[in-house]
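Tokens in:
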């Protein structure tokens, strides 16, 4: 698949400076999801997805509760959901999803992160067609065969089941995210190493060492932007 889900998550949360950044981004994402529908995750599927992902990053309950209370109360901040597409070293493809209350600031910052690190912005649709929206759920303590048996007993279809280090990663259609999770929860599994909706590249490429270093610098620059929520790409890690 070109990605090591648990390793990527650990890398993102490995630096103290990044921890507060990640928590702040989740606060915004939870607030926006709650404002778009009910602030109750059982009645708001988009909010439920965000909260499930927040759990895998150990986002403190206080931050989650603060965002939900803000959405229930007088919080009237307006955020736009934006998607940018672009290219990095050797033509690798990158998708950037953002939530912003200042479109001009975000567009300028994203463009700078690309161009200062050997990349370039593309037009809408120039990259996204090479990615597939995918639900990804990971768990430990079970083998791939055991996971497959659980899903078969629950009559749940998925795209793929892969063993990755000490975890099992399940890939499914986006609309099966909650179905897969419920199948696991009904089998007594309530903790997940990964639980998110993502964009998976249809094909991955390997970069030379110097290009890889430049690419990673570009991705770090994009992920460090306060308005950027997610960065997807097609580079083998």
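Residues out:
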């Amino acid at each position: 698949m070109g990605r090591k889900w648990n390793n990527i998550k650990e890398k993102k949360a490995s630096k103290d400076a990044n921890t507060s950044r990640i928590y702040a981004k989740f606060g915004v994402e939870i607030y926006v999801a709650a404002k778009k529908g009910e602030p109750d995750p059982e009645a708001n599927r988009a909010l439920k997805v965000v909260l499930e992902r927040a759990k895998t990053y150990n986002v403190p309950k206080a931050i989650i509760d603060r965002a939900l209370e803000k959405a229930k109360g007088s919080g009237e901040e307006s955020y736009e959901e934006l998607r940018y597409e672009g290219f990095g070293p050797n033509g690798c493809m990158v998708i950037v999803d953002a939530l912003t209350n200042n479109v001009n600031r975000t567009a300028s910052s994203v463009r700078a992160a690309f161009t200062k690190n050997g990349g370039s912005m593309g037009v809408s649709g120039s990259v996204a067609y090479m990615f597939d929206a995918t639900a990804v759920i990971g768990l430990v303590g079970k083998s791939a065969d055991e996971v497959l048996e659980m899903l078969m007993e629950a009559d749940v279809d998925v795209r793929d089941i892969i063993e990755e280090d000490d975890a099992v990663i399940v890939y499914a259609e986006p609309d099966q995210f909650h179905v897969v999770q419920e199948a696991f929860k009904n089998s007594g599994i309530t903790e997940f190493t990964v639980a998110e909706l993502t964009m998976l590249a249809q094909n991955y490429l390997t970069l030379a060492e110097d290009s890889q270093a430049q690419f990673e610098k570009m991705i770090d620059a994009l992920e460090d932007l306060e308005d950027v929520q997610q960065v997807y790409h097609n580079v083998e890690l």
